[in-house]
Amino acid sequence: MTHPASGAALAREFGLKKVGGRPPLLQYAKQIWERRHFALSLARAKAYTQNQGGYLGQAWVVLTPVLWAVLYYMVFGVLLKRVSDDIEDYATFLVVGIFTIRYLSGTLSHAATSLDKSNNLITSLQFPRALIPISSALSDLFQFLPAVVVLFAVALANGEPLRLHLLLFLPALVLTFLFATGVAFLAARMVAMVADLGQLIPFFNRALFYTSGVFFSLDRYGDGWVGDVMKHQPFAIYLELNRSALVEEIPIDVATWAWGIFWALLTLGVGFVYFWRAEARYGRG
Question: Is the pTM of this model over 0.70?
Answer without folding.
Answer: yes
